[in-house]
Backbone:
């Protein structure tokens, strides 16, 4: 099972928006509405930001939104804030052989 | 509040085994699964496998099959991950996470396993 493909980096100024893509296949991203996004600050555990493509857990700001089209999912962070600077990973359910696959990760920089 | 507390850092020699624990609290342990995910230094997240805390069913990443065993102790709400025949490229931070269909919502703090001669 290959990792999902994400751009290595993305950036934006405070208040701007940034969108991160996550490309898989019909066996993972395209086959299920079980795409999640995680935020990871240096030295910390990942934190769930989006699940089931576009749902936000309690406590996650509505500046974070998710979507999917075909085999590609996307995370958009609107109104960028300094604390949004982190690594972001997508993940997808991938069926009964290997349940989950993660993306390669994207480092978001707030300029 | 949901918490997953993992055991402390380990240093192992190549060829040895390591067993990491993950104690859950704040929810009904048997109503969820536990995923194990690792992260090598400076690298991305790698899914290792999953265990149902309800019935002990497991699903392991193909590349680790034969070297990894995941178990649970429902009496103490604790999950365990054992990795055998350790190699230097097994050096990583190992995370447990609560799993519910399609996502892993709460994560432990991570356990650093260093494999070095």
Residues:
């Amino acid at each position: 099972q290959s990792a999902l493909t994400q751009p290595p980096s993305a950036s934006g100024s405070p208040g701007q928006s940034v969108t991160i893509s996550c490309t898989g296949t019909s066996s993972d991203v395209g086959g299920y509405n079980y795409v999640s996004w995680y935020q990871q600050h240096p030295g910390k555990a990942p934190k769930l930001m989006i699940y089931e493509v576009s749902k936000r857990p309690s406590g996650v700001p509505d500046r974070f939104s998710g979507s999917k089209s075909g085999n590609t999912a996307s995370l958009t962070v609107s109104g960028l804030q300094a604390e949004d600077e982190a690594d972001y990973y997508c993940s997808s359910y991938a069926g009964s052989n290997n349940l989950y696959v993660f993306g390669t990760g994207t480092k978001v920089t707030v300029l | 509040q949901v918490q997953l507390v993992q055991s402390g850092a380990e240093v192992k020699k190549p060829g040895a085994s390591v067993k990491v624990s993950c104690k859950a609290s704040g929810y009904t342990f048997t109503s969820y699964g536990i995923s194990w995910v690792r992260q090598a230094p400076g690298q991305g997240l790698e899914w290792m496998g999953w265990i149902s805390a309800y019935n002990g069913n497991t699903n392991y990443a193909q590349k680790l099959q034969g070297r990894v065993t995941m178990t649970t102790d429902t009496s103490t709400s604790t999950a365990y991950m054992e990795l055998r025949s350790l190699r230097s490229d097994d050096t990583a931070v190992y995370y447990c996470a609560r799993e519910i269909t399609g996502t892993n919502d709460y994560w432990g703090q991570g356990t650093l396993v260093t494999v070095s001669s």
In short: The longest strand of chain B covers residues 92-100. The mean pLDDT of chain B is 96. Chain B touches chain A through 23 residues (CB under 8 Å).
